[in-house]
Amino acid sequence: MLNVTLFLLLVFCVQSIRPMAQPNVTLIADLDVLKDDSTIKVKVINLWNLFSFYNNDELFSIELILIDEQGTKIQANVTRKNIYHFKNILKDGLTFYIKCPSFASQRMGGFTLTRQDHKLSFVHETVVTECHDFSGPTFGFEFVDYQSIISLVHPENIAIDVIGLVVAFDANGLQLSINLWGDFAYKMQHFLDNNPHNLRIIVILQFAKLSIWRDRPTVNTYFSVSKLFINTDIDEINVFKKSLDGDDRPDSSTNTLTCIKSNKVSEHDDFMVNFQLKTISEISEPLEKNTFIIVGTIKGILQNENWHYLACTSCNYKAFRPPGANDQPNADGVFIGYECHNKDCTKTETSVIPRLLISYLINNTSTVTLTMFERDGKYLLKKSAKDLFNKTLQLGFSTTFYPGEINALKGLKLAFKITIKHFNVSKRNNQYSICRVSDDEKLIEELENKFTVSQIGTSQSFDIAEADFESQENRILKDAISRTDDNITPETVDKNSATSPMKSLNTPTILKRNLEEVFDLEMNEKLSSTKTPKISLEGGNNQIVKVKLEKSG
How far apart are CA 342 and CA 437, in angstroms? Predict the structure, then answer.
């Protein structure tokens, strides 16, 4: 009897490990929405739970990222009515055969975690079987080149993976700012607290979100979706560590991590504390190199010059198109085959993207011309030069045509941080560059309140007669408009605020009025040089933990 029992047990064990028949597997790239009986062979490389908005304890859905043996990834989910059918089966890191999933297109235009236009759903008919012979990637990393992020070429609407050495001081390599939010920040702090002597820290952030604020790219953790690897013993980090060996730069040594105080200046300190406030008339003549704060209203745009330039993606200097180069952008909105003449640039032949270069007539106690570049232009317009350039092409207009979004800024009262350079002083040129701009109403009001009664009494700018002031303004605007391109319709300047430098409509009211006019017209599929779609003015501040990643050369 004992022998029989052992024999039966042995037979059972052999049966349990007998390889199952291989199903007919379909690759993710070959899935067809018209077929509902496909089987895929995949690994779960990310899994997270979504809870109900109304009840934090109620599981709303299970979300996954799956990868097949070809390295193709797709997002999948288990909806609420099927959660408990699959909840105890699906685990991060395991591999499965998944038969009869639902396959449908996902909402376009939003942020996506994979390159697929479609998404899988686990439905009642779906069958999940564990797989033990998966030969695909372990993690499915797709590391993004830092240069494509820093040069603002990489799209913001798709998740990215980055790897790098954590540093705390400027170095020769390309550097990238990483924001770790919530639990990811705690995880990094916990690692630092428990590894005080391990100062070479390699980090991988997977499924991160690229954000560009005022022309500064940062990589952020994306809710609970992102995955953070800190000095993990995996091939990708070990290979990266070896690439640093033998690098003679000081930042690639084992003693790289230094805690330093952030040198980022708050908007309030930049405008209210660090620099002297001037009236526009006080800086109308460039007497010395310096940086000042002014308050003024946009009264006009110098449209005799182009509103953008084509910048080298490596150094942001203006690049030039040699004979025979393509004068149309590729599918990513990038021009190729251009020449960069900047002697400090690492490239002579380069690709280029449009960047903003707009000259505004700013008026308050006098009139001055300020040049605004991509960072601050994008902050106000909520669109980049690349966005406006592509839109202009799609509408069939010449790229010399001034977009309505730019014209809609007329009437805005803003605070400006400006720089008077050696060129301005030596050439007696009072067209200054904008270093920073703010549309914060409270900050602008505080700046205006800094003009005390004594300052008003001694400042000639406040004693300018109304007739003289309007005469000067008209002369400047007339000269600018007389050289305007034919496709621009000059607008008369509103004189209501000219007699009172501190009196104007508030910023959001002016901007909303201008933009609503445009939006109404564009709904009728017409375009005017003074009409634009609505612009969101939403914003917010959050406390974050910041690290920098450096990519080895």
Answer: 27
DSSP lists the bridge partners of residue 350 as 338
First to last CA, the chain: 71
Strand partners, 320: 339
Q: What is the pTM of this model?
A: 0.51
Q: Where does residue 209 rank: exposed (0-12), middle (13-18), buried (19+ CB within 10 A)?
A: buried
> Do 358 and 331 touch, CB atoms closer than 8 A?
no
Query: How many helices (H) and strands (E) in the chain?
Result: 14, 22
**Tokens found for residue 285:** 């003549």
Where do we find the tokens 């496709």? Answer: 487
- Name the nearest CA neighbour of 301 among 255, 381, 360: 360
CA distance 392 to 532: 12
- CA 9 and chain centroid, separation: 62
CB 493 within 8 A of CB 300: yes
Q: What is the pLDDT of residues 162-211, one digit of tens each?
A: 998 887 535 445 567 787 877 887 788 888 888 877 768 899 999 999 98
What size, in residues, is the chain?
553
Q: Looking at 287-412, which runs of residues are DSSP E strands?
A: 290-301, 308-312, 319-320, 335-340, 349-363, 367-373
**Radius of gyration of the chain from Cα atoms?**
30
DSSP 430-489: -EEEEEEEE--HHHHHHHHHTS-HHHHHH-GGGG--HHHHHHHHHHHHHHHHHT--TT--
Distance CA 524, CA 535 (A): 18
Is 405 within 8 Å of 383 (Cβ atoms)?
Answer: yes
Token duo for residue 54: 């109304």
CB hemisphere CA count around 279 (13 angstroms): 21
Which H or E run includes 474?
helix 466-482
CA 349/CA 339 separation, integer angstroms: 5
Pair of tokens at residue 32: 């067809």
Check residue 85 and give left, alpha or beta (phi > 0: left; psi -120 to 50: alpha): alpha
Interatomic CA distance for residues 534 and 530, integer angstroms:
13
Q: Quick one: tokens of 393? A: 């092409």
122-162 pLDDT per residue, tens? 999 999 999 999 999 999 999 998 888 887 788 888 999 99
Contact 146, 176 (CB under 8 A): yes
From the list 380, 376, 401, the residue with the least C-alpha distance to 391 is 401
Task: Dump pLDDT digits (tens) for 265-282.
Answer: 678 888 988 899 999 888
H, E, C per residue of 103-117: EEECCCCCCECCCCC
Which DSSP letter does residue 158 get? Answer: B
